[in-house]
Specification:
342 residues; alpha/beta; Nucleotidyltransferase, domain 5; 2 domains; 5-stranded mixed sheet; 11 helices
Length: 342
């Protein structure tokens, strides 16, 4: 099989990343410059600061990715770039860089949906994984259960009606005084706690919908904390973290397995920042094994925003002939499944 080399760029939020990926499966380089330490003091991502930092870093990161891969620009077959969803200012920085390189080097431009990129991270980690499968995409901004029937065909079977899973983790972590980002910090505390200590609600809809809702759970945790404070009782931090995390995980796992059964597929996958959560990984693996299904997930570095996953998704778009014009614009509210073209 001839090699198709993709130079990929990702700047949808607060990671400036560039990667070189071969045939959608092999990573030659994956450079990620994170802004977590910058935004930590604000308790979340500040869009204006993120955009300015991307401007400063995007070209050095791209050059580093090519250098580490020992690939010259003329050896690249296409430029893949995230064009949505995300923060509009952040997206525009990466998109402008990609369009400039594509024009100057005479290379095709391939616009990539950020969530499709997260799903494609699984191909980098698991060479045998092919569609169809059901993938749970859980991050700070998204909670989707997606049926992946082909490399370029996606059906949303369930999504959040309010807070995304990662957003709920961040808000509860802030209420507990743990800091930002909340997911990893809650995960660390939860390992030391009893997940059955507090009975927090799990929301399932009576109409059979596979949608998620975490706002009620968030309110229940806040009410519990306020109630304990009013009574002058000490809060057991690990127990609260473990109980909250278990409530989130139970719903994520349940809806994902239901979707897989509905579609008659025997493979489930995880993607997105929340996919790095240790309890989610172990619970999904156990539930999948019990149901006779195979379970896949990327390594933690590929769960966070990174350009390698964009390179993997761009490869499959490129092979289908889905290239974009140089008039491709950032689409911060882009829906999963929308056509990747200018």
């Amino acid at each position: 099989m001839s090699e198709t080399v993709i130079l990929a760029i990702e700047t949808s939020c607060d990671e400036t990343s560039a990667a070189v990926v071969v045939n959608g499966r092999k990573i030659l380089s994956n450079i990620i410059s994170s802004q977590i330490d910058i935004h930590k003091k604000f308790g979340g991502v500040v869009p204006e600061i993120a955009s300015r930092k991307h401007v400063e870093l995007v070209l050095p990161v791209i050059n580093q990715a090519l250098e580490e891969a020992t690939v010259k620009l003329e050896q690249v077959d296409a430029i893949g770039v995230t064009y949505g969803p995300g923060l509009v200012g952040a997206l525009l920085v990466g998109l402008s860089a990609a369009k400039g390189i594509a024009f100057a080097a005479g290379k095709p431009l391939v616009g990539v949906h950020h969530i499709e990129g997260h799903i494609a991270a699984n191909y980098l980690e698991n060479e045998t994984l092919e569609p169809p499968f059901v993938c749970l995409v859980a991050s700070g901004g998204h909670s989707h259960v997606v049926h992946v029937s082909d490399y370029n065909i996606f059906e949303i079977m369930g999504q959040t009606r309010d807070d995304a899973a990662g957003e709920a983790f961040d808000k509860i972590a802030r209420a507990l005084g743990l800091g930002y980002p909340g997911g990893p910090l809650i995960d660390i505390e939860a390992v030391k706690g009893n997940s059955k200590a507090v009975d927090f609600p799990r929301v399932h809809f009576n109409d059979g919908s596979l949608d998620f809702s975490f706002s009620g759970l968030k309110t229940a945790v806040l009410n519990y904390l306020n109630g304990m404070s009013q009574k002058g009782l000490e809060i057991n931090l690990p127990d609260v973290c473990a109980s909250f995390q278990q409530a989130v995980v139970d719903v994520l796992v349940s809806n994902t397995l239901k979707a897989a059964r509905q579609k008659g597929v025997a493979r489930v996958a995880l993607a997105g920042g929340v996919a790095a959560n240790s309890q989610l990984r172990s619970a999904m693996k156990m539930a999948a094994e019990k149901a006779g299904m195979e379970m896949y997930y990327p390594k933690p570095i590929l769960c966070t925003d990174n350009a390698a996953m964009i390179g993997a998704a761009a490869y499959y778009e490129f092979k289908r002939g889905n290239v974009s014009g140089l008039d491709l614009n950032a689409k911060p509210g882009l829906r999963l499944g929308d056509k990747n073209c200018g």
